[in-house]
Structure formats: C-alpha cells, structure tokens
Amino acid sequence: MIITPSQIKEIKKEAEREIEKAQDVLSLDNLWKKYLGRKEGKMNDILRGIKDLPLDQRPQIGALANQVSQKLEEKINQAKEKISQGKNKSSVKRDFTLPGRKIDLGHEHPLTQMRWKVAEIFSSLGFEILDGPEMETEYYNFEALNIPDGHPARDMWDTFFLKGFSQKKIKTTESEGKLLLRTHTSPMQIRFMEKRQPPLRACVIGRCFRNEATDVSHEHTLYQVEGFCVDEDINVSNLIHTLRSFLSLLFGQEVKIRLRPSYFPFTEPSFEVDFSCLNCGGRGCSVCGQSGWVEMLGCGMIHPRVYEAIGYPAGKYQGFAFGIGLDRLLMMLRQIDDIRWFHSGDLRFIRQF
Amino acid sequence: MLFSYNWLKEFLPDLKKTPQEVAQFLNQCVANVEKIRNLKEEIDSRVIVGQILEIKKHPQADKLNLVKVDLGNKTTTVVCGASNIKEGQRVPLAQEGTELPSGDIIKKVKIRGIESRGMLCSARELGLGSDHQGIFILPSDAPLGQILVKALGFNDYLLEIENKSITHRSDLFNHRGLAREIRAGAGKNLRFQNLKTVPLDTCAGPLKLDLKNKAPDLCSRYLAVILDNIRIEPSPLVMQNRLRNLGIQPINNVVDIMNYVMLESGQPLHAFDFDKISEDKKQAQIVIRRAQSQEKMVALHQEEHVLEKEDLVIANSKTPLALAGLIGGKDSGIDSNTQRIVIESANFNPINLRRTSWRLGLRTEAVLRFEKGLPLIFTESGLGRSLYLLQKMLGARVASSVYNFSEKSANKKVLPSLLFDIEKLEKFVGQKIPSSQITRILEKLDCQVTERKKGKLLQVQLPLHRPDLLAFEDLAEEVIRLYGLEKIKPQPIKAFLEPTLLSPELKLRKKVSQVLRACGFDEVYNYAFTDQPGKVKVINPLNSNQGYLKKSLQADLIKNAEQNLANFQQFKIFEIGKIFDPQEKIKIGGLICAPEKDIFQEAKGVLELLWEELGIDKQKFDYQEKGIYLGGKKRGELRLVSDQFAVFEIDFAFLIKEQNLVKKYSLISPYPPVKRDLAFLIDQKYSWAEIFREIKTISPLIKAVELFDVFDLSDHQKKIEGQKEKRSLAFHLIYQSKEKTLESKEVEKVQKIIINKLKQKFKAELRNF
C-alpha cells in the first residue's frame, strides 16, 4: 500500500466536511469511528500501513498522520461541545424564578422569642435569669410582699386558689397560707433573696395567672418579666438607668422614659413608667392614645417590709424592682390584635414569627 | 374616683391652672389621671328643660301616655311610657335631632299611630349616673326652656383618678385632700379655703344617747349627735348635680348632705331617724357590737343579710340598726316624715369591714374609703362639716351634745414625728436634693420641719391627715415626687462583675427547642387548666372546663392538632410546659401529624436525635408500650393516638442530669470501611434490640449495624411459605479496622459467624434479596 501526503490531506478534507455537516452527537461519534476508530478508522488504516512504507518515508508520513488524527479528534470534540451548548441554550433554559425546594424549620412561639430577647438583655446587664414555681402560697404571693390578708391592695390581683389532693406532697404550712397560682412573678423576689445575700441582681420571666374573664385584651394566663437589684446603695437613678437601657436595647433605638408616682404594696416609692411612643416618636397617635407616651411597666424601690419578711437586717439594703407584662409588650411591638392568639395553638399565627 | 374641677377650685379660689394643667400636675406628681371629661360636651344642647302640662292615656296602648310639655316658648307632645311622671313636673326633653350618649339619635316618630316629637329622658339615658327607674325629674326651679346642661350647672370638668394608684392615700378620696395636693404643687402660698364647720364642743341639747362600744377593736372612734327641726326635701339643684356628676344618686337633703360631706372631706357619715331608734323619744341607745351568728338584718334596699360573728353592727337594745360602715337598716333610715336624726361619724377597722363587705357583696362608696384606713381626724371634721350644712341648708338644730367614744390609741392629738436623714436621702435617690428644698416640700404638705444636727437631720411633725407616713421611705417618696422625677439623672449600677451564665435548665430548654425546631416542630403554648380530674383542683375556676391543673401536656397537644387540621395536612408541634402531679414539673411534649408516614417511627427518631444531641447514649433507653424507661425509671411516653397523630411526652428534669454536652472525639480510621448487607427471616418474638446486641458482640471489626428494611410477611406469603409470625430484617454491616485495610476473606469470616450465631440463637434464616 502506498500512502502519500496528499492522500492523507484528502482524508482530512473529507472528514472536515463531514464533521461540519454533522447535526448531532451520534453522527459525530460515527465519524470518529469512521476516521479514528481502532478497527475501521481510515486514519488508523494509514497508521497501520506506515510499517510497510520505505524506511525513509516513515517519519514524514507518520508525523503527518498523527497530526491529522489529533486535529480531527479536536474538531470532533469541538463540534460535540458546540452541539451540546446549543442544546442548553434552546431547550433546557433554567427558570431562575422557580421557587426553591421547600425546607421546613419549626417556629419558636413569639412569646418564647420575646423571653429569650429579654433574658439576653438582662444577662448582659449582669442579671441572673430565673423562673420559679407557678403554684405558690399566699405567703410568698402576698404576705411577704407586704400585702397582708384584708389589705385593699389585694383587689389588684384576682387569684385562682388551689387544692392539692395530696397535701403531704405540696407543703403549705399554716403560716404559708392557702395554695394558689401566682398572680405575678414577685414571689421570686422573696424566694431568691431568702437564699442569697446582696449584692444581687435577678430577672424572673414566667407565667402568671389572673382570675379574670378573657377577651381581646385580657387573659387569665399571662407572662411577666420581673427584675430586681439589691445592694447597699442601689438607688432611684440606677432604676431609671436600668429601665432606659433595657427598653432601648429591646426596641433597638434610644427610648425616652418618664416616671410617674403610683402605688404597689411591695415598693416605696412606686412608679409607673411610660416610654416615648415608637410609632409616632412622641407626637401622639392611635397607638399611644394621642399622648405620645405608652404606659408599660410598674416599678419602685423595694419596701423595707419586704426585707423584713426575708430577714435582712433593717436599714442595711436598698434596691429596686420592676415588672412588665411580656404579652402586652409583644402585642404592642408586633401590633397583634388579640391576646388570645398566644394560647390558640394555631399554626397560622405561630408560623408568622 | 371622680373629682370635680369646680369643687377643687372652691378650696383653691386663686388657682390659675386649667383642668388639663391640674391633670398634668397630678399625673406627674400624685397619681394616675385616667381621663378628663368636659361635662358641657357630654349632653347634647338640644336637651332642654320642659314642664309637663298634661298627661293623657294613649288611645292605642295601655302602658303609654301622651304627654304635653311646655318648653317656655312653645309646647310639644311626646309619647312616654314612664310611670313616675306627674303634671307640673319639670323634666328633660330631648328634642328632635338630639344625640344621646348611647349614640342613639332622637327622631320624629309615630308610636302606635300618634306622632311623638322628642323624648323625655331618664338620668341614665343622659349619661348622668345609673338611675333608670323613670324620667329624671328636675327640681321645680329649673328654668323653663333652658338648655339642660346650663340648667344643671354643667360648666365643669371631671378628673378621673385611678383608685389603685392611691390605695395608700386614704386622705385623697375626697376633694379637700386632692386640693391640698394641688396646693403643694403650686407656687408658694396658694390660698387654701378651709371648710366652715360647727365646733363639736359647742354642741349641746336636751336629747340623749346611750352609747356603748362593745367592740373597740373594730371601732376605734365613734362620734354621734342628735339634731331636730329636720324637714326632708329634695336638696338644691347644685348639690344634686354635684352628687350625680360624681356618680351618687341624690335621695333627699339629709342623705345628700351625708354623701356630699364624704366627697368633700372624706369621712363617710350615716344618719338614723332618731324617733325610729328611740324607745321613749327622749333618749336612744346605740350599741356597737359584733353580730350574732345567723343574725339577720334587712337593709335599706329591702335585702335581707345573714350576718356572721365577726360582722360589726350598730344596734339598739333590740335589733341591729345598721351594718357598720356598709349600709343602714330598713327600719332606722330617713324617710319623708323624719323630723329628728342621729348623725354617726366613725372609724371602723378596715380589714374587718372589708371582709364583711366582700362577703355580702356590698362594695359601697363608704367601704371604698374605710378599707383604706381613714385618718382618725376625719371623724371630727366630717361631723362638724355636716352639722354646718344641715343648719345652713335645712335650718336643723343640734339637740344633744356630741357623744364620743375614742379608744385609747385613737385618742392621740398628734401623730409621732419622724427624723429624716438627708444624707440617706441622697444615697437613696442617687443625687443630692438641697435641704432647703426638702424642707419647703415637706412644709407644703403641712408638715412642721425643724433642723437637727446642723441640718443633717430634719425633725418632721406629720399632719393629722397623713397617717400613711410611717417611715423614711414614705417621706422620701413625698420629697421625690414633688421635687420632680424628671430631675433625677439616670446613673448606671455600680457593682462588682460576676458571671451570670444561663442556668442549666434554661440552657437545656434552648437546646431542646433547637433540636425540635430543626426537626420541623412549631412551638405552641397551652393553658395550665383542664377539665380532666387531676391532682390539683382549682377552688374558684373561671368556668367548669378549667376545674383542675393538668397532669399531662398530651390532651392539649391533640386538641391543637385537631384544630390545625382545618388548615394544615401535616405538621409537628411541641410544647415545653408545666404539669401538676401534684408537684410542678416541666415536660417536653410533641406531636407529629403526617398522613401515610410511619409517624411512630418518626417520633422515635426525633427522640433519638434529641438523646444524641444531648450526649445521652440512645441505647440506654428502653421503649415499652407503657413508656420510655431509663435505668428502670419511667421518663416519658411515646404512643400512637390514632393513625393520624403520634405523641410523646418526656420528663425534663432528668435530662439535666443525664445530658453530656462535652462530645468525645474518636480516632477516624485511615483504612476504608467495608460494607455488607444481610437479611434474615426471624420470629417476631425476638426484638431488634436483642438481635442488634448479639451482632455487636461478635467482632470488634463491626463498626455499625444499620437496619434498613423491616417487613412482616403478608398473610398471603405466610400461607405459601408457612412462615407464621416471622418478619424480615435487612441491615447494613459496616466493617472497619483501625490497623489495616480489611481483606475480603476477613469480612466473610465474620459474616459467617453472624449467620451461624443468628441461626443458633434466633433460628434466623438467611434470605436472598
């Protein structure tokens, strides 16, 4: 068999023509077999034939054949790539607006989220975070907090009284009085201070109960944040500073607050605290009843009779305490219309948070 | 409590502050003002004074009348159903177009064929108190045709103060007390108009009282005096209006004066008809005593009260005349024939009175004041004031001396004085308040102040009307609020740094919540109450569905799930809540709802993930039908409620002890693992746990045994294969060595041992699959 360079070039031309014509990958594969395939490929025939050539022609023809083979291989690959690219462009165009695959993560109840938020702030201010028992005794819920039986201040709290069937297990001695559901988190002031000596700072976040009918803005089950701080020289200006810091951190902006005199049996003096309405910036709107201020919490300097009940030496300690309704705070922040959503168990509500 | 701005101004004739400014001051320095009401705006000016000329029966309706009303310049006829009207009376007529406080608008209407142009109104319809017995009959001197608001002297503002914010200030439940506060807040020397009173020591007369106090512990002071020359009439319009505006129904001149004095100076008074309680018309007996058990008394409003031993009554020798401080008796009260009266001005034990009041449901204006512990001095000033008004308005005459019982401790003429430490105040407030300013504030509050120890201490003599000031903190409050709370500069707490880490309980809560939420659980909150009998009963539940505290979270989770089915096909919910068993415990409850899934296994998978995340070996748990056990103790439950719901409830407290949050690292083998699968037919009586344990003990080269397929042979297959009570278990076996690459023959060797062992122990039959 005689192989000339022109013969090789002829094959090359022919192959290139065919490659150009080819429309799909399959025909390109066939072309590859036709020219480069090990069995019947034309270029392979040539390469196989080289050994029969005169010695002096072998290097030249061999080099050329290899070169052409390589070239064709390249061309076929390029053509294939072109085809597959063309495919992507036309038929399999990605719609970037299609939604991603739905992945479910559970939702934390908005009140829990609020509890953590408050806990985080007070933790950062050096307050220990507590909860405490919901079943309380009259002593801790009232008496130790300077609300003796027969005191008109008891009218502030409508109370659920309880009867445990196994009285042995729920210890209420005569002096601790009746068993009840705590009406506020303040009993934890007593329980905590009974165990500890000042200086102390604590924040109680927990569930409380009021025996009153529910409606859009009233619940028999509610959540309260109670903070207190006692040392030898904790004073009114510290109270104001702490509350202002807390509210500013909670709302994520500087908040103005104002104190007004009020009455709570376990603090003296007692104050109501208003903060400047975030909705209108204090100009007056429907959220704040046109006053520019929102009434949010009660506070005061811990009453000496509370220290007396705990057994602290008279006159030694000063401290403040405050209480905020967590539900109301959340309702205001998120503009929730009905307090009963919180205990509805309705996922249409919970999944929004 | 409601306060009239005009009335306050009578005490402070030179007051320049507007009602809004007064309210602002009170809010900042005294107590919470909930509302300011402008009375003028509250009644439509189309309501005018008319006089009834004629009353005729409605031809078509028995219960209706046609009333012809003179309006001064014209007459009109209205249809009216009230039975208390008479010809000649003056009445309020709402003309066409009037908007009533209820929002109703008066229109010209035909009632049973007769046209009615306007409406005669009751006091309640006009928003004046609660009286809806009949038409509001005006005094005969109300000017005909005049706008009602004008005729009633409604040129006034009412300030509504939140009662609970002055619980500790019994001296403020009256106009004089609040006026004192306003004066304290005003500039220097605002003139204070004192009330005119009759000095009690000038009282004398022929009639006598036989006063006996058998319960001095419940009544520390009791003053009484007799008056004659009484003629019972309606009181003047001005007084009626004041009472009505402040929520008290006018009755007659004597009763109205009693109430008027209470609103004015804070002392509740009571009037008896002397001739009804006296036996011989010269002398009456008054005994203050505890009631007998089951003793009965019919009160003014005809209601019979059954008394208990600790109730205090005012009686004569025979019968109770009044329930002390609460309500008068039917047979001792003032009526239109009364000519002589006994006025009582007393101080009763607040706690005891309050108890009786709540038990009998008598929450009167008097109790509201008594239960706060009134200043003793009020008994005298109240009585003196009522005598002055009775003399001036009725021409009544004092007919006896003043009878006075005072318990020893109640007889003090001065309150103790307090030593007020100025440096302590600085430490308490956090900044210095100049001592001259402190003195000025205290003096404005009627204290007498003397400097002691070169001005470091102030000796403060308290006024008799402030028995609430007992300690340093009380005086500090007075000074701070009048000094101005806005002047106190916020200062951060100074303290030693102490670490304040979250408690283990809170950390665990956070962790559990994280794991469950990652598994797709949404958190719900439920009430503590249930109707299912539990270990703790609610003595006074809001309703019968909430009679107990719950001892499990599961029922409410199932209820939540059922309700959510209306909106969602599948979901998972959890709650970390308390149960009462009867001790209070925290539980973790969860529920999975997912149709066509093996929700039981899924729930178990969630728990296993939780154990793993908490670092507790999941193999330590023993799952039984009755519960989940760890170390022989029941720690929770996992059950299928129905095809729809799988529920679990786990103790919380034990997890704190069992958890191990420090994860251990174990060396990762550089040699490749070898994976093999095996499947067996095994009798159902053998649990997977047994089989698993058996395999694991065979060789240390077995790194993991992972079950991937379980099925019970169907009935059909059982018949064919005769394989009753058998199931197929298929699992992956992962072999790995830490020392070398395993050769296939080493693995096969162990595989053979497994096959033989399972055959031997469980009669397991190797399956091809």
Write the layout of secondary structure elements.
The complex is a heterodimer of chains A (353) and B (769).
Chain A: H1 5-21, H2 25-36, H3 42-49, H4 58-90, H5 110-124, E1 128-130, E2 135-137, H6 138-141, E3 161-164, E4 179-181, H7 187-195, E5 200-209, E6 221-231, H8 236-251, E7 257-264, E8 267-276, E9 293-302, H9 304-310, E10 318-325, H10 326-334, H11 347-350
Parallel strand pairs in A: 1-5
Antiparallel strand pairs in A: 2-4, 3-4, 5-6, 6-10, 7-8, 8-9, 9-10
Helix pairs in contact in A: 1-4, 2-4
Chain B: E1 2-4, H1 5-11, H2 19-29, E2 33-38, E3 47-58, E4 61-70, E5 75-80, E6 90-94, E7 109-111, E8 114-116, E9 119-120, H3 148-151, E10 157-161, H4 175-185, E11 208-213, E12 219-228, H5 237-245, H6 253-265, E13 269-273, H7 274-277, E14 283-290, E15 296-298, E16 304-306, E17 312-315, E18 320-323, E19 327-328, E20 341-348, H8 350-360, H9 365-370, H10 377-394, E21 397-398, E22 403-406, E23 417-421, H11 422-429, H12 435-444, E24 448-452, E25 457-461, H13 472-483, H14 504-518, E26 521-523, E27 529-530, E28 536-538, E29 548-549, H15 554-564, E30 571-580, E31 584-593, H16 599-613, E32 621-623, E33 628-630, E34 633-640, E35 645-651, H17 653-658, E36 674-683, H18 688-698, E37 702-712, H19 715-721, E38 726-735, H20 744-762, E39 765-766
Parallel strand pairs in B: 11-14, 26-30
Antiparallel strand pairs in B: 1-10, 2-10, 3-4, 3-6, 4-5, 6-9, 7-8, 12-20, 12-21, 12-22, 13-20, 14-17, 15-16, 17-18, 18-19, 23-25, 24-25, 27-29, 28-29, 30-31, 31-35, 32-33, 33-34, 34-35, 36-38, 36-39, 37-38
